[in-house]
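Backbone shape codes
____________________
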Amino acid sequence: MLMLTDKLLIWLTTGLLAICTIFFNMYLLLVIHRSYRKTHKMNPCDFIISAIAVASITLQILTYFWQTIDQIDIVCKINYAEAILLVLIFSLKLVVFWSTAFLIFYYGTKLVVEPVSCYTRIQEAILKHVHIVLLFIYISGFVNCVPLLIMVGHKNYTSTIADCGTILPTTPLEYIYISYYILISDIIPCIVMVKSSISIMYNLAKHLRNMKASSNGAHGPKLGTQMRVIKMTLSLVVIFVLFVVGDMLTMATVVLMMQNTLYLIVLIASIYTTVSAAAMVYGKKSHWKELVASYNLFLDEYPCISGLKVSEVKTEPQDNEEE
């Protein structure tokens, strides 16, 4: 059971994470919007990243809003409103994870060359309807979380502290639903990401071996920004796997021990959205280069902290930002 001091500390930490998450995701949205204004078109990769950014920003705002209300409403006057906020938070959490899994699936399909088969045709069909897939993810995310309202505890007392707006299972059906939610929000997206990452690593190793053989070992193979995208994709998978471990452990305390650890669940989700947003910015060289340049320009205004400058990325001729 989390004490009031623990909740306050998590609330402050979530606020700092929210600032970072909003900054990175707003940066992504602004850069993508500027590119769209120049070319009047948006590639599927940018559209998926935009969907993730919007969901992540909204998730962080609602998370901090819920925690703030929980800190203020110590007598559970607006308990049901807090429960609705929790349902929205869990819905957006589901949207973010599935959208990220879809992004990894997209990169895996684009970066990996496979023989034409029934599976590859299904992949191509899915990627031709990115907008519809993302719309389905958003709608299903909210629909799948509506049953959480049934599990609203009007007043759950543990020790001497009242937990307002908590969602705790009490019946067999509710336990089944929580297990179902963990399956669709953590396990299945993780399987999709890991499968795609394994395909990427296998084909990357094969591709590098072929390139090295064709050059007779004269020089190391260079893939430019394609390698950067691969690193970003694999980083997102590692980040998500670590998150799944932490999320499932905290969810287990809710299901098996009947403890209110929702603060920890939303904190872990906040950490994930922050780190994954930073990874997506780093994944596109043009985005990262511009961000570093802006950061260094800002430090130029304050000579006393100029030592915090980051070395800027040099553009190489072979680097092409192709998604």
About this structure: The first strand starts at residue 152 and ends at 153.
